[in-house]
Design a protein that fits this description.
CATH architecture of the largest domain: Up-down Bundle
Number of helices: 16
Shape: globular
CATH superfamily of the largest domain: Amino acid/polyamine transporter I
Strand content: under 5%
Distance between the termini: 17 Å
Helix content: over 70%
CATH topology of the largest domain: Amino acid/polyamine transporter I
Number of domains: 2
């Protein structure tokens, strides 16, 4: 039986691990930019952002713990659709978006302000050569650096935030620069991809908690619940503080400034040139450790998917080469290109997460119908938002909030339920034993 002091310690350890996984150095650029665009509505925009980012990510972790594995979440679609969805998720949090973004973020926040004139192509080659070497040859140094960097980054961020609150950089603009702060906040939350990453990250958390001796559903939920609260509070403080800092310069900057440029301008105004150098170094190293974790995870997934026909090392090389090419698009262009893809992938993934968490015994046909309804609507919305006008889309409920997929998901799920008739309820994939309650 776990002692109470050990439980508290484990909650803190797992909580910091969750914070580290979800924070990601690349995500630091979104809250300040959202605050700047939202101006007087920065709190509304931030609230939507936090719900779409950390709120959904933590729900994803709990859903995975409830059903026991990421496969149990996605297999409701059927084997092939589940594999396609997981491939899309891994590609997004891997070589298509997240991994190239670590290189672009490092270049724009660590290199450009401190060593101007360096070629982005040369930097991307050197960056991913380092990632390749550290992923193929597993190094204990990476773990040590990762454990040291998170506290350093936290200390640096809180120092900047506290100074920005005590001595604001300016007055918040009278009017926002965007039409709808809530929708912009939701889309910025999507860009972090934390809800998508919750499925592979949740497996790590589950393995860690189990290894610590928590072998029952109730004990695991207790530890993960406390850890989730801790991680959520830390992320709330950091992201909210950064959003406020962005709001304080909303009268000075417009959306013409890049995301990385904005946060580096904030750091320089608050901490001086030395602060820019130190912050760039810490963020750059944090991006390296994030890139290593994502590259190794993506390579391991695809190697397992190929059942050993293509080796892990081959996938590591392919991911690094592809990511190096994509990273040269630049941070803001990567974000722009990723937006429609994430708008399509997020809704069906969220439907599966909600069902796994709230109704794990729901028949697969119903889950599949709800996910299809969300997917079709999200595809139409993405087309509508990118120049292909679809007249009725704007009339869907919650369209203005970017949640127009909710009603179609419910309707398609109910239709599938009616078509399935009295089909037998699925066996629960609930992570608990018959004699205990969560």
């Amino acid at each position: 039986m776990q002692k109470s002091n050990n439980t508290v310690r484990d909650i803190i350890v797992v909580g910091f691990a969750l914070f580290s996984m979800f924070f990601g150095a690349g995500n630091v650029v979104f809250p300040p930019y959202l605050g700047m665009e939202s101006g007087p509505q920065w709190l509304l925009g931030f609230s939507a952002y936090f719900i779409a980012d950390i709120g959904l990510a933590l729900l994803g972790v709990f859903a995975l713990l409830r059903v026991g594995s990421s496969e149990a979440v996605t297999l409701r679609l059927g084997k092939i659709p589940a594999e396609l969805l997981m491939c899309a998720i891994i590609l997004c949090i891997g070589p298509m978006v997240a991994i190239p973004r670590t290189s672009a973020t490092t270049f724009e926040m660590a290199i450009v302000p401190n060593i101007p004139g360096v070629s982005p192509v040369l930097f991307s080659v050197l960056f991913f050569a380092l990632i390749l070497a550290l992923c193929i040859k597993e190094s204990a140094v990476v773990d040590i650096v990762g454990k040291v960097l998170t506290p350093l980054l936290l200390v640096g961020l809180f120092a900047i935030i506290i100074k920005g609150i005590v001595t604001p950089l300016g007055e918040i603009a009278a009017l926002p620069q965007i039409a709808n702060a809530a929708v912009t906040g939701i889309k910025a939350g999507y860009q972090t991809m934390d809800a998508l990453a919750a499925l592979p990250f949740g497996i790590i958390v589950l393995q860690s908690v189990t290894a610590k001796g928590y072998d029952s559903g109730r004990k695991q939920f207790r530890v993960v619940g406390g850890a989730a609260v801790l991680a959520g509070v830390l992320l709330l403080c950091v992201y909210m503080g950064l959003a406020y800092l962005g709001a304080t310069v909303s009268a000075q900057y417009t959306s013409d400034i890049g995301r990385a440029q904005l946060i580096m301008a904030l750091v320089e105004a608050l901490m001086g040139k030395v602060g820019v150098i130190l912050f760039g170094v810490v963020v750059g190293l944090a991006c390296v450790t994030t890139a290593i974790a994502l590259t190794s995870s993506a390579a391991a997934y695809f190697a397992e998917l190929c059942r050993g026909k293509v080796s892990y090392k081959v996938f590591v090389i392919a991911i690094c080469v592809f990511s190096a090419v994509v990273s040269n698009l630049g941070l803001d262009r990567i974000v722009a290109v990723a937006a429609p893809v994430l708008d399509v992938i997020y809704p069906p993934t969220l439907v599966l997460i909600f069902i796994s968490l709230l109704a794990p015994r729901l028949p697969d046909r119903v889950s599949r119908g709800a996910a299809i309804g969300a997917l079709l609507t999200s595809v139409l919305c993405a087309l509508n938002a990118n120049g292909i006008h679809i007249p009725f889309m704007a009339n869907l409920p919650l369209y203005d909030l970017g949640l127009s997929w909710l009603l179609p998901a419910v309707i398609f799920g109910l239709a599938a339920s009616l078509l399935s008739g009295r089909s037998q309820t699925r066996e629960a994939r609930v992570f608990q034993r018959p004699h205990e309650e969560l």
